[in-house]
Amino acid sequence: MPFIPHTEADVQQMLAAIGAPSIEALFDEIPEALRGASLEKIPSGLSEMAVSRLMRERARQDGGALNFIGAGAYEHHIPAAVWEIATRGEFYSAYTPYQAEASQGTLQLLYEYQTMICSLTGMEVSNASMYDGASALGEALLMALRVNKQNASGRVLMPQAVNPLYREVVAATTPAQGVQPIAVAYDPASGQTALDALKAHGGSAPTAVVIQQPNFFGVLEDVDAITDWAHAQNALLVAVVNPVSLALLKAPGQWGAKGADIVCGDGQPLGAPLSSGGPYFGFLTSRMAHVREMPGRIIGRTVDLEGKTGYTLTLQAREQHIRRAKAKSNICTNQGLLVTAATIHMSLLGAQGLAQVASSCLRNTAQLTQQLTAIAGVTRVFSAPGFHEVVLRLNRPVAGVLAALAEADIFGGYDLSERYPELGNALLVCATETKTEGDLARYAQALTAVLQQQA
Amino acid sequence: MPFIPHTEADVQQMLAAIGAPSIEALFDEIPEALRGASLEKIPSGLSEMAVSRLMRERARQDGGALNFIGAGAYEHHIPAAVWEIATRGEFYSAYTPYQAEASQGTLQLLYEYQTMICSLTGMEVSNASMYDGASALGEALLMALRVNKQNASGRVLMPQAVNPLYREVVAATTPAQGVQPIAVAYDPASGQTALDALKAHGGSAPTAVVIQQPNFFGVLEDVDAITDWAHAQNALLVAVVNPVSLALLKAPGQWGAKGADIVCGDGQPLGAPLSSGGPYFGFLTSRMAHVREMPGRIIGRTVDLEGKTGYTLTLQAREQHIRRAKAKSNICTNQGLLVTAATIHMSLLGAQGLAQVASSCLRNTAQLTQQLTAIAGVTRVFSAPGFHEVVLRLNRPVAGVLAALAEADIFGGYDLSERYPELGNALLVCATETKTEGDLARYAQALTAVLQQQA
Amino acid sequence: MTEALIFEVSQPGRCAVAQNPGAGVDHGGIPEALRRRDVPRLPEVSELQAVRHFTRLSQRNFSIDTHFYPLGSCTMKYNPRACNTLAMLPEFLGRHPLAPESHSQGFLACMFDLQEILKEVTGMAGVSLTPMAGAQGEFAGVAMIRAYHRARGDAARTEILVPDAAHGTNPATAAMLGCTVREIPTDANGDVDVEALRAAVGPQTAGIMLTNPSTFGVFERRIHEIAGIVHEAGGLLYYDGANLNAILGKVRPGDMGFDVIHMNLHKTFSTPHGGGGPGAGAVGVSERLLPFMPIPVVGRQGERYRWLDEKDLPQSIGRLSAWMGNAGVLLRAYVYARMLGREGLLRVAEFATLNANYLAARLKEAGFELAFPARRASHEFIVTLKKQKQELDMTATDVAKRLLDYGFHAPTIYFPLLVPECLLIEPTETEDRQTLDSFVAALVAIWDEAKQDVSKLKGAPYTMPVRRLDDVRAARHLDLRYQPAA
Amino acid sequence: MTEALIFEVSQPGRCAVAQNPGAGVDHGGIPEALRRRDVPRLPEVSELQAVRHFTRLSQRNFSIDTHFYPLGSCTMKYNPRACNTLAMLPEFLGRHPLAPESHSQGFLACMFDLQEILKEVTGMAGVSLTPMAGAQGEFAGVAMIRAYHRARGDAARTEILVPDAAHGTNPATAAMLGCTVREIPTDANGDVDVEALRAAVGPQTAGIMLTNPSTFGVFERRIHEIAGIVHEAGGLLYYDGANLNAILGKVRPGDMGFDVIHMNLHKTFSTPHGGGGPGAGAVGVSERLLPFMPIPVVGRQGERYRWLDEKDLPQSIGRLSAWMGNAGVLLRAYVYARMLGREGLLRVAEFATLNANYLAARLKEAGFELAFPARRASHEFIVTLKKQKQELDMTATDVAKRLLDYGFHAPTIYFPLLVPECLLIEPTETEDRQTLDSFVAALVAIWDEAKQDVSKLKGAPYTMPVRRLDDVRAARHLDLRYQPAA
């Protein structure tokens, strides 16, 4: 019996202590008709050796390609130390730190995380994580609705340049509580969310304005103007940001005259492997004035009965296990281990390392753009400056080109034509610091060949 | 500067404290002509990201084959927990436990290891490891020479059925101290070391008789008779064993009437990955009467000044750092981390698991032998029962067959023809518990094809 | 010893050089106005400093790998290391969520198999793996119930019934979906008050959320009757899978009449809790809810696996995460399920229940009062220290803190809220009898200490990195990030 | 708390089932007489029990990853985690030592590159990577010296000269090769007594084994003269690389005139010590010793790498291990060398020396007596507590044990043997200045404690899992394995 330590002697002695004739008897309160699942469709157990073989073979099926897809999940180098430490049993197999005295490791680490992510986003308070960037945006909008008593309409100006998958998650999870996302178009030339487009919805007393920087197209938005405009409407400005970009880009807390009100995003670029989309973690920061409306766990520093510094969960009165139906969110389990990894990751990179990573991403994407747009039939779509993704237009349907590249073990990018048909044969491409000159050249050669072949 | 934490301010302040104008000045006692290596041939440093890419590419070059080579290094399943725990920083980055109070983890583990390996070999005392099986045999012979005052000739009866690489290591490392290995032939029909062959050297007052069980051909020796004969000659019996086989085979401590005197071997099958031949570890066990002649570190249980149980290095007076030129061996650094892994490995398998592994190996090799000898041109060479390796004879040179199999990503075994030309086109094949029925069939099919093709 | 904050060992200009990609910093085409003005306060430490700091921090945690952790309702059982190793194979870690299906067959096969396994163990008709934790699974479940009623034009069903003993996430989730919550009382034996339920249902009933066994650690015996009442009234039944470990391989929620279930894979399928997550809250549904499952789901066509999304499930409640939720956690759960297999899964509840009943019997024998002495324990049970509180002023908190000194993590305390001074104890099936015996001995010793001098307990813990912490101060004087003295 | 022996938590019949290959036990064709009769005493524990036991044991160790570890002569510097991760890539772990060269080009390329790097940093003509530790490297070195003389028909050269301050392995190694050992005294400044050396050499001289800087932590200034004397007498010079970190990138043994050198890659190239090993003791040789290198060595022909063995090096001293020594350790060293690269390797000695001289200066300032106050420290230096021993009865052991309570591993004590009550302190280049300052503060505090009451120190340590252990009892009442009470 894998993972069950009982010997036959144990079982007999334990039953005797209980005064039960058999293990089955322990279930005698359950109606007999319900008992006895057979689980026929489940195969017999495998030894660790056999399951290792199976999983290695399956993993091998999927590996080996050179990846230029970003679109919200970014391939970055992760220092070896990050996961060697994060998967230590003491972090990996601990529960939520309810018993603070026996959880000072996790708690101090989370306090350090809160410090780092506040500083990176330029905000005052952070929680200890949400599920991912998309759900963090959903929670940020619900929080905005609680905070913004002045404009409580629930209307949220939501640029179409915000990650479409995030918008779908918002649509699935927030309308029941009154959030009404209002689509705001992007400028087809620059790729930016134009202030004018926002102004067209200005009369509707928006509760919040969302802005993603860089936006889904990798294009940089005019965040200062938009933030000031949102505040002029008495709307909260909710920022969605890529944490790696913040090494070079203005912190949301400094956008416009007063800064963003709530900042969220996906922490994946900070030490989470691509891993098929998860586990990642969402971050959410805000101003101290709004701390009591924040969802999720928050760690505070305090003292013990001898006056020694320690760390503990605080403001639990916001949470579901205390407040139940009136809680700020139903979130309970979050993404603690990913935050552990991110904290180690940020410590190993430092501001200097993160800035180098961001610069490398910029350079690589610029260089790749140059090489790809030198190919006949490939053009750049947007004019505004960007961060580390770029939209290219091909002279034929993207899906076929991507399939041909995949046969050469190159993932050429994300096909925008399904969610943005108005852009035509548009492809979103990303080259992070992990790409070498050889990689860029390999992509360019392969694309040249594919376009020639399909021509 | 990778791994150097000094800031420019640190350096200046430290130099000021020293009273030196520059770092270079700290080397002013070294003749100037010697200073200033340029290391021109060494490439510039790589980031961890770049070196990871390089190593992953190199690793990929070597992977993917199905391995049927044994010949002293065996592919076994290693539970995931083994190396996840063994590479925890506290084990991985600790030194030899000179400060016992700050090393109780390693010391208690080594005491547990000594218990396990003593029990497995049926002996009374164990050291805390040698470099590998071959060097353990060398040290065992030197120890025999110290122990056996009655027959101090240094002549050691060394069957040719002992792993030839072990014999080469013995030849390279022990003659300077007086060991004279005398080759003893094996029986060409059975593959065993015949008692008669040993008796032919009986007059030479041997200091020790070596016997490997199973021997290099995977054949089982008549250990009881040989042990008794050795003792009748006042020779010590030095056993070389595969620890996994001891789950099924008689413990050397029980060989013959009095048991082996010194037992050694390679601990690799107990949790060390193949890893190109190392790091593995050698084990060495003996009787309590000889403990003061043992080489290497030994851990003892003792008490602290409050009477609490603790563990410490003991009998250090045998060792080089105390005894210098009169030490029992020059060994200092041993293979501690491999012993750590082996101890966890043995704990996870237990006697029951180890017996199942050994049985699976037996079955798989038997089944493979059946399938391969069913192929025209393949015959079994030796008649005596064996453990998990078998010698097969092909109807053409082995090297070419192995090369053809390698092209199909199958490592077909070890070519015996170089070191045992008298055996003709002989191949040593091994199938451990890691091999599935599909693997065996794949080998049989490939060999059939190769032999047909080359016919 | 205290461990300094990593910011306190930082030095301006220091960094772990090997982690820099090597090239310098430049801003490419970023316009001046959009550039960062300050340097973020990230640590400036060497690689050794970071490794040492976080390794030392880790040692300041209790965890399953180091301590018995009988935290009721949390199912802290052994997390097999192989699950971690195999989920972290480089190819799995490197797979982009948008990788083409041609390069995803290995991963998709695992997800498809896991869906099938979860269908079988729960007795449901379909499974979606995307919810990222139990609470999100609950959200998905209630959203599907809502979508089902709406699809039938039955928009008035907005009330969710919840027993008073339910987890806090149940009412919180219902509220997030705009439902009203009505509590149903529990009787003295821990069962739902069926008459009260009967009186509560009506045309406004969207459904009931039920944990079975309940948070009292006892099995709801009249589950069939409850299902009948709710279904007859037009409502659906939601199974909160937090306590699924109690019935795994023994009873299937589908067979009890539930329409939807979430599973905490980080409990029942032993993926790690990670100090607070990640979890995975897969949902299973009966036939009638199949069209509403959250996307994506994995389908199979012949030998090929493929994603099913809005095109395949146009009535889906939609996406709860950008991609496949916590895919890496799902891989761990899959490896676990394959190692246990049919025989192993059939035994989980049996041995979890054996351990709980044994521990309950031993504690009862030692004089502790069980909250439901007349009932079988499920995988967990409740001790109430009401008597000890009155007689000795020994509280559940005191016992919890003192247990830490004895080398045991504390049980869940003060939950469920309805039982005074309660310890909710869940040993799980992976603990051996000797450990349970030592835990009994520790509780007896602590009670003895209280009889001698309860102040000993009030000062506990003594052997942790800190003594008892001041939670009130933490909430009053909010100190939520490090700010160096000006 | 104590941690029970794993045998004490064993239960007959228990095992970690997932680790069994699944099939039953049978003896195949093993004859009855050769079968095992008893069941070996291996633990009978669950996987959780094993994981918990060994995880808890690990926490009872000091290590670089958790503590400053200034153990002189041991070079306890940071072991980059990437070296471990990359050396443990599945393909490297899975490579059989006898795998064909066609499937070994990746591994062989790494080994060839490492040979080239080590040649360059040592200034030697050839490198063999096979020795598995420093002592085996020494063995290889002396064996090559012997083989060289023998090949020239000069069989009388059987005496090895060793300074009295040498590591114990030096004379032990010489003895293992059947050489006689003659000690050469050291002068008051830590240099070899050159006149004594001059008197000692002769036709019997096989060579001299020298550590430079010596175990006194000072550089042998007359090394050129020494080399001349020994070479002129017909002997060879052996460089004990234990202290190579002191000169790495600064001075090359080849340039000093050495004929052969071993390198402790687990010191200078930062592979882990693993609680006692594995190490790697690669040897480098001058032109004249090239034919004698231990096999195998890796060669390159065009773009292909291949093994060189007895066929290529017929005069080789032979094999020291069955295959390529501690190959996995060599991979780690290779990754380390590539991450440092030329610039990084040039800086190792500089910063190791800066740290040592800084620490020496600070301790001197605090009143501690340096053994060689007139000399520059190399990468390490010696404090003698002779004065404190006399005045306060504060011994090196007392300080070492008390330091543990302050969270620092002790320096090497009582070595070199010639300096009374000595602490041999090696901070390494990877420690930051703040850590060094804290270490000084701890030593000062301990000295202060001794001034108050030296018995405080005699009782140390207080905060470790055990108090001071009785080593005498351990040696007198040998208890070397667990045997249950009958």
From TrEMBL, chains A, B:
User: Cross-referenced InterPro entries, in alphabetical order?
Assistant: GcvPA, GDC-P_N, GDC_P, PyrdxlP-dep_Trfase, PyrdxlP-dep_Trfase_major, PyrdxlP-dep_Trfase_small
GO BP term, pick one: nucleoside metabolic process
Provide any one GO MF term from the record: glycine dehydrogenase (decarboxylating) activity
Keyword set, alphabetical order: Oxidoreductase
Give the EC class as a word. oxidoreductase
Presence of the UniProt keyword Oxidoreductase in the record:
yes
EC numbers listed for it are 1.4.4.2
Question: Its catalytic activity?
Answer: N(6)-[(R)-lipoyl]-L-lysyl-[glycine-cleavage complex H protein] + glycine + H(+) = N(6)-[(R)-S(8)-aminomethyldihydrolipoyl]-L-lysyl-[glycine-cleavage complex H protein] + CO2
- Provide the Glycine cleavage system P-protein N-terminal domain boundaries: 3-443
Recorded family membership: Belongs to the GcvP family. N-terminal subunit subfamily.
Could you describe the subunit structure of this protein?
Answer: The glycine cleavage system is composed of four proteins: P, T, L and H. In this organism, the P 'protein' is a heterodimer of two subunits.
What does this protein's UniProt record list under function? The glycine cleavage system catalyzes the degradation of glycine. The P protein binds the alpha-amino group of glycine through its pyridoxal phosphate cofactor; CO(2) is released and the remaining methylamine moiety is then transferred to the lipoamide cofactor of the H protein.
Give the protein name, as stated in the record.
Probable glycine dehydrogenase (decarboxylating) subunit 1
UniProtKB/TrEMBL annotation, chains C, D:
Every copy of the Glycine dehydrogenase C-terminal domain together lies at 349-452
| Gene Ontology BP, a term | glycine decarboxylation via glycine cleavage system
MF terms (GO), sorted A to Z: glycine binding; glycine dehydrogenase (decarboxylating) activity; pyridoxal phosphate binding
Domain Aminotransferase class V, chain residue ranges per copy: 155-299
Substrates-to-products reaction catalysed: N(6)-[(R)-lipoyl]-L-lysyl-[glycine-cleavage complex H protein] + glycine + H(+) = N(6)-[(R)-S(8)-aminomethyldihydrolipoyl]-L-lysyl-[glycine-cleavage complex H protein] + CO2
Q: Does the keyword section mention Oxidoreductase?
A: yes
PANTHER family membership? GLYCINE DEHYDROGENASE (DECARBOXYLATING), MITOCHONDRIAL, GLYCINE DEHYDROGENASE, DECARBOXYLATING
Q: Quaternary structure per UniProt? A: The glycine cleavage system is composed of four proteins: P, T, L and H. In this organism, the P 'protein' is a heterodimer of two subunits.
The name of this protein is: Probable glycine dehydrogenase (decarboxylating) subunit 2
Protein's organism:
Solimonas aquatica
